[in-house]
Write a structure and sequence with these properties.
The complex is a heterodimer of chains A (179) and B (154). Chain A has 179 residues and is α+β, with helices and mostly antiparallel strands. Chain A is 53% helix and 30% strand. In chain A, strand 6 and strand 7 form a beta hairpin. Chains A and B meet through helix 1 and helix 3 of A and helix 1, helix 2, strand 3 and strand 4 of B.
């Protein structure tokens, strides 16, 4: 009888040990689930913020792109050696690179186009100045992560104007003026 | 003696059953919790209306002025060019002295209220200004776009 009781007590102790082990496991799992929940919420919140940033910069880029493209195609009258010639703003940009006297006219034409609607910065830069810097970032896509190249340090829009020395027309809209 | 052993065995079986019930409960918590959190993560809606409005605005401008040169400006041309849901969108376009609008005007009012912070589920609002060329003359296009689509995004 004594032997049976001792075995029962030992069995109970073993069962209690298992019970404690299971309970600790349960607590650990619940904690993990809570951590996953918090991470999920944080990720989704940061998604929304990132999407808003992308949308704002994309909307601005669209305006810069279309506005610069339109300007470069506009034809203007340019006085060259006493004779008036018609040429596009893109050609005037080339001309102003060859002869800096035409820079004032170019600036004036750009101001006529943009000063009413934008606070802007227009400049003609070289290809070297227009080079992009690329960084790589892991981005979550569905259930996996992919390595994506992201262009950084680029503000504004750029159009390459072909000539002997490639010229880049650069427009950066710093603010939009209201009606 | 045999009767005593039988009673003890029955007690042991009951204790084992309780432990296994407890383990089953743990299993349910683990599987249920994992499914619940994964389902919650993937079912949460992300508001993409700001991105959508930037894309739609670009398409509209490309319609009116491909490459920045104005081809045509009017409501009919826009309807042919891009399908827009009148119930979910409001668009107001001004090019020089010409103006037209399209869609639900209430959204414009809601955009005004959104700035004051008095709307619980506000639409996405976008205002843009473009420089365009029409018949070799400078033109400024003002675009106002509001997208509702609350059920799909919020």
């Amino acid at each position: 009888m004594k032997m049976v009781r001792m075995v029962r007590i030992k069995n109970k102790k073993a069962q209690a040990g298992e019970l404690i082990q299971d309970t600790v496991g349960l607590i650990a799992i619940v904690l993990l689930l809570v951590i996953f929940f918090v991470i999920s919420t944080v990720i989704l919140k940061s998604y929304s913020k990132e999407l808003n940033t992308i949308a704002t910069s994309q909307a601005l880029h669209n305006q810069e792109h279309t506005s610069l493209q339109a300007l470069l195609q506009k034809t203007v009258d340019v006085d060259i050696d006493g004779a008036t010639q018609k040429m596009t703003i893109a050609d005037l940009s080339r001309l102003s690179k060859i002869n800096p006297e035409y820079e004032t006219l170019l600036k004036q034409k750009v101001a006529e186009a943009y000063s009413e609607i934008y606070n802007y910065n227009f400049s003609l830069i070289t290809t070297k100045e227009a080079q992009f810097k690329i960084r790589y970032e892991f981005i979550q896509v569905g259930g996996t992560f992919i390595l994506v190249p992201i262009i950084t340090d680029v503000k504004g829009q750029q159009f390459f104007i072909p000539s002997n020395e490639t010229i880049v027309a650069h427009l950066e809209v710093k603010g939009i003026k209201n009606d | 003696m045999i009767k005593l052993m039988e009673i003890k065995n029955k007690k042991g079986q009951t204790e084992n059953a309780v432990i296994w019930l407890y383990r089953f409960f743990i299993l349910v918590v683990v599987i249920g919790g994992t499914i619940g959190i994964v389902a919650m993560h993937y079912s949460k809606q992300v508001d993409v209306r700001n991105v959508e409005s930037a894309i739609v605005a670009k398409k509209i401008v490309d319609c009116i002025a491909p490459d920045g040169i104005v081809q045509e400006f009017g409501k009919d041309m826009l309807k042919e060019c891009i399908p827009l849901d009148e119930q979910e969108i409001y668009l107001n376009l001004t090019l020089g002295n010409d103006n037209f609008d399209f869609g639900d005007r209430l959204l414009a009012t809601l955009c005004g209220a959104k700035e004051k912070g008095s709307v619980k589920y506000p639409p996405s609002c976008l205002e843009q200004r473009y420089y365009l060329v029409q018949n070799n003359e400078n033109k400024h296009l003002s675009l106002f776009l509001a997208i509702k689509k609350i059920e799909k995004n919020l």
